[in-house]
Sequence to fold (278 residues):
Amino acid sequence: MKIIYENERGKVVMYGGGNGIFNVIEIRGLSMPENDIDTVYYPDMAGCIVNKSASQERIITISGDARDTMGKNTARAMHILSKSGAMTIISSGVSRKIFARCISFETNKRKGVYIPFVLQLMAENPYFQDVNDTKTIVSKREGVLSSPFVLPCSLSVKKTQTMIVNKGDVNIEPVFILTSPEGAVCPDGIIIENLNTGAKIKLNTDIAPNEQIKVDVKNRRITSSSRGNIIFCLDDETSLSEFFLETGVSDVKISAWDAEGKIYAECIYNNNYLCVCL
Fold:
């Protein structure tokens, strides 16, 4: 097992099995996060009714020892841990990351060249992620060309559609990138639709040549590489909070009816996991 905590100040690397400067003896907090459950009880009724349930923040506790004769390695680690960062856990050939901040780093009485320590981290978002984002070209065109095509392909005045696979344990909110090398005029707007849930995102805008429009569902932002913030292009009947990709396969379609020009579409997302298995 290998654990890396990293930010702009540097990185702290910890190993399981005594192979490094920082050696992990025990780690807790990698299983399912605790849930905050809102319940209602009624007289003369067994049990309760759950109104809603939400995963709470994750607390990760690492106990270990540092091989540190002069104390410099421990001091450097404290300097790095004082800023929030990304923690990557590598075990059994699988890598997962989570963003966290140190809430406690306690050292104990030195034992020879070793300094025992207990490190405690808090992750506001309790879900682990893949180290790298997944990118999917929204690639299937219908009723446009009869000849074969190659990726990345575009939608030519009609629609483009693909299956997006969420391999994680929870729903995720993706990012869509829309571009048009030669520009696209879209009198009826651009619609991103999840056919599984029925949720839609409608943008009332054209795309200028080589402009890139980024629809960031998670952060509720719509930006243009040339125009900046264009959240005003979001249709009044659209709510970004209603759009997500369920676990498993989602059928996503992007359409621009009566459009003139070609639109290239890409979906970027990161699978989220409930736990890490060591």
Notes: The CA atoms of residues 26 and 63 lie 5 Å apart. DSSP finds one helix and 23 strands in the chain.
